[in-house]
Amino acid sequence: MTPELIARYDQRVPRYTSYPTAPHFSPDVQAATYSQWLSELSPRARLSLYLHVPFCAELCLYCGCNTTVARTYGPVASYVDLLEQEIELVAGHLPGHMDVAHIHWGGGTPTILSPEDLKRIMLLLSRTFAIGSGAEIAVEIDPRTITPGHVEALGSAGLNRASLGVQDFDPLVQKTIKRIQSFEQTAKVARWLRETGVTGLNLDLMYGLPYQTSDSVVRSVSLALELDPDRIALFGYAHVPWMKRHQALLPEEALPDAVARVEQSTAAASALLRAGYVQIGIDHFAKPSDSLALRQREGRLHRNFQGYTTDEATALIGFGTSAIGSLPLGYVQNAPTTVAYREAISKGQLPVVRGAALTKDDCLRRAIIERLMCDLSVDLEEIAARHSKTTDFTPELAAIDELAREGLVTRRGHSIGIPEDSRLLVRNVCAVFDRYLDSSAARHSRAV
Predict the structure, then answer these.
(1) How far apart are CA 434 and CA 438, in angstroms?
(2) Kind of pairing, strands 415-417 and 410-412?
(3) Residue ranges for the chain with pLDDT beneath 70
(4) If phi over 0 gives left and psi between -120 and 50 gives alpha, with beta otherwise, what is residue 388?
């Protein structure tokens, strides 16, 4: 891509982990709607569970997550009580003792919970749901704070996939973003996990941070590869200080521009491809034998709020402050603050405060966007037929043809493809099919 092309298409577009995206959730969807949607699930449906822990030991300046710093354990302990109560509340609205295929702990820092409290919640989940022997149980880990006790507790609860937050190994970058974390710390935790029997290891890296260069990002990738992870996520830093005020503390003059961001991403991707990894969508890489790569080859890759996934469950149930759930009839989101979340739970109410009921058109466009994000291609007629819907895509195809003239896409009839060198701009292509985008563009990160 030329610098001119990058500048032209470096727009604010969603990451498309859902459609409609979260800025378009409405307070029209409340606890009563969620209760109905839960009760209408088939008793034979398989579920995924997401548990959000909105606490960290300290705040990293790049962070875009819903989290706060917990100086003492008191607020965390109280939150564990609330999580327990919400799990029991939700179970009371389900049609039975349902199967679970995935459990994902996110945050924040899930391992800010004590080992005892982690075991306590996992024990409750195992009593409340039927967790299959092949279920994926995953947790996001800050290697700076986890202890062998945490690893033992998670291992005994069946943990089989862990994501280690790294971002960058360069000392200057770490100091600037306030996340000092040595390679040795990270390697030690990876060793603990493997010794405990955790078979899936992910590493999270970033580009676009202050003082990063293409060379420094590649050096971080090289160090990450020494840990032999199954998957590496390579996220572009989203600078949104109007939404996350702490990001304003970062030196904006040290942030790479759009062209430099593309160069960093491309250099890191090339290093990972040379090492034998397969690129998954826009920001994931996996060993060819990993289930993500296998699902991509089969055309069965999916995308949800955790990014690219093999998860094919009927519904994703979110627990905790701000957690988002996805059900066949729509999306729900819990109260965004712990105060509001606690207030609802204390009244015995589901803590949902907003969401989106899906129309047939939403489901069709969601399927189109997911295939573009996962496969870099889509057949509009095939998707429409699958949804038993005929839709006039004339306006969208006109916009696609404009992108094709720039070389960003190819089109043959109703089949759309994205060339390899335009992979980073797939979100721009998805935006063509987004009927909600205009009113929320300022809420999103830049395309590159």
Answers:
(1) 9
(2) antiparallel
(3) 439-448
(4) left
Map residue 272 onto helix, strand or coil: helix
Please give the full DSSP string across 359-406, using - where no structure is assigned: PHHHHHHHHHHHHHHHHSEEEHHHHHHHTT-----HHHHHHHHHHHHT
Q: How far apart are CA 19 and CA 314, in angstroms?
A: 16
Residue in 272, 277, 270, 274 with CA at minimum distance from that of residue 292? 277
Q: Which two tokens stand for residue 111?
A: 């391992």
Token pair 């005994």: residue: 156
Distance of CA 390 to the CA centre of its chain: 31
- Structure token pair of residue 11: 């727009």
Q: Which of 310, 274, 269, 311 is nearest to 293 (CA)?
A: 310
Tokens of 97: 């003792």
Question: What confidence score (pLDDT) does residue 164 get?
Answer: 98
Chain position carrying tokens 């702990």: 105
| Strand-strand pairing, 161-167 and 130-141 | parallel
Neighbours of 200 (CB within 10 A): 18
User: Tens digit of pLDDT for each residue in 319-335?
Assistant: 999 999 999 999 999 99
Task: DSSP for 289-317, please give it.
Answer: TSHHHHHHHHT--EEETTEEE----SEEE
CA atoms within a 13 Å half-sphere pointing along the CA-CB vector of 156:
12
Letter string b/e over residues 295-315, b meaning 16 or more CB atoms within 10 A of that residue's CB:
bbeeeebebbbbbbbbbebbb
Evaluate whether 69 touches 57 at the Cβ level (below 8 Å): yes
Please name the amino acid found at residue 116: E
